[in-house]
Design brief:
disordered N terminus, alpha/beta, 29% helix, single chain
């Protein structure tokens, strides 16, 4: 569905409900550049950007291609979450098919520092495998759609932190806490200590809003199982900050 006001023709399409996507929409809107932000609709009450918004999928590559064509989209900025691999791949194919300029706005990944205790794994299944035989207490922050990957782990206890409640299978021993960042170091340290957490499982999402959990884990000597990002498509121009993305859009829209 699309929220009011309806998208206009000749817009810049910004994909994603990330902080970077909202920041870019605000910048472009301020400069009088027509922008439509597209949100997947996976969060019940998303933070909405300024300007026009559409919510929901496009219907695959063909649907996105048709939307770009029908709305004479001037450019697409893919500012989706680093783990939203499907929509990123669809954007590459649809933009190539319609001749629409495409930029990938992807936040820089987190990098382990001295004092961190990271175990890096390639995917969510790898994170579950890394917990095999573990009987401790785990803070799981990988999102509601991935919680079911840990359902077969029976010995450990999970504190599952999500924005919206999971709908799939869950570990036998768990507590769900619903919250949304940004988070702060003191509160994250208190959460880990009060729940006697010995392992943090998270995705390498990057950014500052949720980074304090990693600082807190390092201070407390807590093991972190870090899920690596999926591989990004090759040949796509990419930047890692809103200022650079805004400048790229302006080179296409000036004049």
């Amino acid at each position: 569905m699309a929220a009011s006001p309806p998208p206009g023709r000749g817009c810049v399409l910004v994909l994603g409900g990330t902080a970077e996507a909202r920041g870019l929409a605000a910048d472009l809107h301020h400069d009088g550049i027509e922008v439509v932000s597209s949100l997947a609709g996976r969060v019940a009450q998303p933070r909405l950007p300024v300007g026009a918004v559409r919510i929901g999928g496009f219907g695959g590559v063909d649907g996105m291609s048709a939307w770009l064509h029908d709305n004479h989209v001037r450019a697409v900025v893919d500012a989706t979450h680093p783990f939203a691999a499907t929509i990123t791949a669809h954007a590459v194919t649809a933009c190539a098919a319609t001749g629409t300029p495409l930029l990938r706005l992807r936040r820089a990944p987190w990098v382990a520092r001295p004092g961190d205790h990271w175990t890096q794994v390639p995917d969510i299944r790898g994170a579950a495998t890394a917990l095999t035989g573990h009987d401790g207490r785990i803070l799981l922050t990988t999102g509601r759609q991935d919680a079911d990957a840990f359902a077969g782990i029976t010995d450990a206890w999970f504190l599952i932190r999500v924005v919206d409640a999971p709908t799939g299978r869950l570990p036998a021993q768990h507590t769900i806490v619903r919250s949304r960042g940004p988070y702060h170091l003191d509160a994250e340290r208190q959460l880990l200590q009060e729940n006697r957490i010995d392992t943090l499982v998270t995705k390498n999402s990057g950014g500052e809003l949720t980074y304090p959990k990693l600082d807190a884990a390092a201070q407390l000597g807590i093991r972190v199982i870090m899920v690596d990002r999926p591989t990004e498509p090759r040949g796509v121009t990419a930047v890692d900050d809103v200022v650079s993305a805004s400048a790229w859009v302006r080179t296409l829209t000036d004049g």
